Amino acid sequence: MRLDPATQNAMLTAVPGLRAFALGLCHSADRVDDLVQEALLHAIARIDSFTPGTNMNAWLFTILRNHFYNESRKRRREVADSEGLFVGSMTSQPEQDCHMQLTDFRTALAKLPDEQREALSLVGGAGLSYEEAARICHCAIGTIKSRANRGRTRLAQLLSIESADDLGPDRALQAALCSGHLRWAA
Length: 186
Prior knowledge:
Elements: H1 5-26, H2 29-45, H3 56-77, H4 85-89, H5 95-110, H6 114-125, H7 130-137, H8 141-158, H9 171-179
């Protein structure tokens, strides 16, 4: 965009004041010229919103100030990660795996006898105590404990869970994590 000479002169005249103002805002000589340049670029791009006859300096200072605070807010939300360690640790399993695991779990749960499924749903799913589950099922606490234990054992068999290592990431993902190809966020 081509500026008229009077507007161009007014902008150039404002540069020393803009630099001083930018230094006062950011306290970093390295950022001063970047702030001033961004403010001038923004002003040139929006020159049609400037009202001729008003104070060009005030308009430019407002643009610089707004740019500085917008940049500061954005930086507060960013995480410094120059070596990429944080980004490298952000891994997650594909969602389709979780969906398939949930489908497998529901299928296995449906294969349990009603009493075991009921006990597991109350104790494991709803988080009730054995005492509360026993009251709901009108049976002894020991009976609920036994049903829940037998249900857990049968679910583990149906889902081919042999140890706690079988829970969480699947074996292929665990192997990749252990080999260092992926970093797992702890």
